[in-house]
Amino acid sequence: MPVRTVLDGRVIRFPRPHRDGILLGVTGLLGGVLLWGLGLHTTDFRELLPSWVTLVPLTVMAFLELLRRSCPRTALIVGTVALIADQFTHGNLATVIMFTDVMYAAVVYGTPASARRIPVTTGLITVAITIAALAWLRRPEALLIGVVTGLVSFAPALTGATLRNHREAAEAARLRAEQTALLAEIDRNQAIAAERSRMARELHDMVANHLSAIAIHSTAALSIGEPKASTDALTVIRENSVQGLSEMRRLIGLLRDSSGDQEPAVAPALDGLEALLEKARTFGGDSGLVFVLDDGRESGGRLPAPVEMAAYRIVQESLTNALKHASPGTVTVALTHTDRLLTVLVTSPYGERPGPRAPGSGAGLVGMQERVTLLDGELEAGPVTAGDGTKIWQVRAELPAEDDTELSA
Questions:
Q1: How far apart are CA 210 and CA 44, in angstroms?
Q2: Bridge partners for 395 per DSSP
Q3: Where are the chain's structural domains?
Q4: pLDDT in tens, 200-243
Q5: Predicted TM-score of the model (pTM)
Q6: For residue range 336-371, what is the model confidence (pLDDT) as tens digits?
Q7: Residue 150: partners with Cβ closer than 8 Å, 6 or more residues away
Q8: Closest CA to 284 of 334, 238, 233
């Protein structure tokens, strides 16, 4: 735990020294004492002060090694004063060596501003001292003073700046790699969610109308006592069971294909609406429903496959909902294609209906909304009042669609 003290009611925390600083401080202090004991000094000012004074800058510099990480700027300032003071004593090589480490640590562990300024400052100081020494001594040997100054100050600062730049570059690369991995994970999750939604829509659209017809006719078969009506209902049930099973097998085949290149044998398109309505007439005839197709598109025009498939599925789901919930009357499917916009309008009688009804889950409306949203279109579904004052259920989808024949031309 960090050392704490109380001053004027405030708790001041002192960070625990790093083990590297402790090792460097103890080693430098012991080495300096050994050099002092052997009488190995670095300056000629031996007559000004007693020999033991050399140990004062040495001790201060060894203590500053403990602060090299936690307070690098303070350690550098005090260390500079201790180094200058050492030059007016007998001098100790260990003090100079520890100062180079303090200079290095000030660049590596200091603030970014200090890391930029210290190498420039020490470089200018080295040049200035070299020029001053040459001007004062006027001998080539004066260059050695500049070299020693550069080795003590500029060289460790430059080394620290180089190491810090490498560390920052490595950290930036690590952050970029983490961000890339995070984005990849987000994309993967979105792709999985989109694929699950697509599978849910396809499964619902392929099988829901068949199961709805089965539910309605099986209820009718159980409630009607006439043998012929029961036989007709069971025939419809069998047909829908076979078709639903075929659709399920086709979907399972697509899911098991690992290549991802397999597509449905026959993609649903608007050309198949008449056959779709014919099935609806067969299933809904006993419920008093009449199905009418009003195709206002120009003949021969081809729309993009995703648009045709979405429009087909919207009509299919609307017809399925009509078979489940519509009261007796006319169900109208109207298509118009103008100004690069395909409009799908499905209306059905809205109100209480006699006879059996199949339960609904609301997944069909969700699937239609998802299909329209993927194409940047608009969808409206709900009860409205017709021109004659009657209530109808209306599904209106507007899908942006350019004619493929125009694009190919």
A1: 106
A2: 346, 381
A3: 3-182, 269-409
A4: 766 666 666 666 666 666 666 655 666 666 666 667 676 667 66
A5: 0.51
A6: 988 788 999 999 988 766 555 555 556 678 878 888
A7: 126
A8: 233
